[in-house]
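FAQ: What does the model actually see?

It sees only this:
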Amino acid sequence: MSTTFSGGRNIAMKVPPHQYDETVRFYRHVIGLEPVRGHEPAIGFVFGANQLWIDRAPGMSQAELWLEIVTDDKDAAADHLKAEGVVRCDEIEPLGPDFRGFWVSSPASIIHLVDEKAGAW
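And it is asked to produce this:
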């Protein structure tokens, strides 16, 4: 395989509105995690070497964790994952026309953002 993948630093927790405020309070006040600054109004916390983002997700009945995978070549990654039968789900959340990435689902229905990071290696 010529495409390389590695875990990204971003973890998104998609939380239904009825659980959002208490979830943010849990990480901010109960656990006391340091907030990620400079991305307001987004709410994120330093989570070891990672960043944990808490996103209000209307229409969801339970929380989900979404993970980031970084690659050196988005197009080669897309071809490789397609050849392996990985389900692509770009409709899950818009990324914008200039974003070099896409969404996939693992066999366990965990959403992953595949994100091209130039010079990540």
